[in-house]
Amino acid sequence: MQRLIDQAKRLVNKKLNILLHGESGTGKEVLAKALHDSSLRARKPFVAINCASIPESLIESELFGYTAGSFTGGRSKGARGLILQADGG
Length: 89
Hints:
The protein is mainly α. It is built from four helices and two strands. The protein has a two-stranded antiparallel sheet with strand order 1-2. The radius of gyration is 16 Å and the shape is elongated.
């Protein structure tokens, strides 16, 4: 765990993506939030995404958004994707 924290401290303010993976309940989201809160991006939005909970047929529209009328059951004004919502954060 200490090695993970040391690596995270070195990478947190670099312009790169950090992929956290592991078993359910191991604290991935807690670590991601801690990294975000201790970074230069802390004032920007933090958007946690549990991809396993999004149906495969909706993953694209959830991540990238959609325009009005794109599909039945969508919001009448469309929706911004989660990636766009997290921009800069």
